[in-house]
Amino acid sequence: MWKYLLEKEFKQFFRDPGLPRMALMFPVLMMLVFPFAVSMEIRNINLAVVDGSRSEESSRLLEKCTSSGYFRLVDMCRSPEEAMRLMDENKVDAIITIGSDFGKDIATGSGFPVGIKVNTVNGTRGSIGAQYLANCIMMYLQDRNPSAGAEASPAMDISEKYYFNSLLDYKLFMIPALIVIGITMITAFLPSLNIVSEKETGTIEQINVTPVSKSAFIICKMIPYWVIAFFVLTACLLIAWAVFGYTCRGNVLWLYLFTTLDIIVMAGLGLLISNYSSNAQQAMFVIWFFAVIFMLMSGIFTPIASMPDWARAITYFNPMRYYADAMRAVYLKGSTPADVWYDAAGLAAIGTVMVSWAIASYRKDRS
């Protein structure tokens, strides 16, 4: 019985010419396009300068800022009012104002008459742009007087070390997250349309009059999507290695373990929604509603620690929270299940509820 049910499900999947193509092209496009598009590394920040000094020192400061590659000099303004007008027109993202006594003050050490203004309509772009500018100014000061820091605090030696992503490469940080998003979307959307499509075509009635148990029916519905998800995961890992040179620092088998747990959760949720939906459009809207909430509250884009207490409490019911945390820990840090056992426990608990609910909610009439 199980053999014939699985054969039916795979034939049903490959009968639709669009689904195999989507399963094949989705990981390729996701891994080749999204790492460059979904990035917190801000470049081409439009910069306006109000240089009241016009000295050699102010030129060196501006050269340090523009040579960083993050800023694009738009205009040398004659007054702060002119620069603010450009910012009001959204032609400028940041403004540096250099006082007329900059050259003399920097030489005598009596002050540092430099002001920074940023456009924070886009809060992320504005805050990161301000940090870039501050770093450029600090680099200028260090280049001008490299021994100043040592004279000011001879007993203190500060050095920075970045673990797990030493080059602060945002693509490396996003690769595991994109894998999580891709697998979650596929294993949620496709099962949610499965039973609904059989309802619409009428083939579900043929299953209902057979002695196939509800549990066998639901489990056989999930197995093809395990195969698809494993294919997507394998393709993503190979593309990350071949194109970007990134490899998993931990045991790749742990990635498949957590992927299996996530498939159980999301496929169970998709089948559960399919049981309660009367048509494909309704199922699509409901699963999209949950998918957006899962992504926004998973910690993929916004750290969970930065959320308010009530939002952090909600994330404990979000399977993507556990899956994303486990994937990043294994891929970037080389963690083992013993290090992230709580993620496995969370996925297993939610998966048990989803699959049990999907089996119980499937109405099989034998009349």
Mind explaining what this structure looks like?
This protein is α/β, with parallel strands linked by helices. Helix content is 66%, strand content 7%. The chain contains 15 helices and 4 strands. Strands 2-1-3-4 form a 4-stranded mixed sheet, with helices on both faces. Helix 3 links the parallel strand 1 and strand 2.
List keywords for this structure.
single chain; 367 residues; alpha/beta; four-stranded mixed β-sheet; 15 helices; 4 strands; 7% strand; elongated; transport; transmembrane; ABC-type transporter activity; membrane
Quick description:
The chain is an alpha/beta fold. It is 66% helix and 7% strand. The protein has a 4-stranded mixed sheet, sandwiched between helices.
Question: What is the topological layout?
Answer:
Blueprint: H1 2-15, H2 18-37, E1 45-51, H3 56-66, E2 71-77, H4 80-88, E3 94-98, H5 102-108, E4 114-118, H6 123-144, H7 148-152, H8 170-201, H9 204-208, H10 214-244, H11 252-276, H12 280-296, H13 309-315, H14 319-333, H15 341-361
Parallel strand pairs: 1-2, 1-3
Antiparallel strand pairs: 3-4
Helix pairs in contact: 1-10, 2-8, 2-10, 3-6, 8-10, 8-11, 8-12, 8-14, 10-11, 10-15, 11-12, 11-14, 11-15, 14-15
